[in-house]
Request: fold
Amino acid sequence: MKTMQEFLLVKEVARLLRVSPNTIRSWADSGKMPEHRHPVNNYRLFKLKDVERLARQIAMPTAKKKQTIKPR
Reply:
């Protein structure tokens, strides 16, 4: 069973990624960031491991991202 410690609220994710809460909501709506819902109050929740993965992608320089694409 998952504990609430494994999940973060919108405002917590926004603070960690240094973006606005509306940006987090937008990313969740577009599918860029998987979201879960609290079973009682229906708040958006985000798994800590998903937030960490997105933080690494954001921190990766653009040039490095281009290098990871394999030529045809």
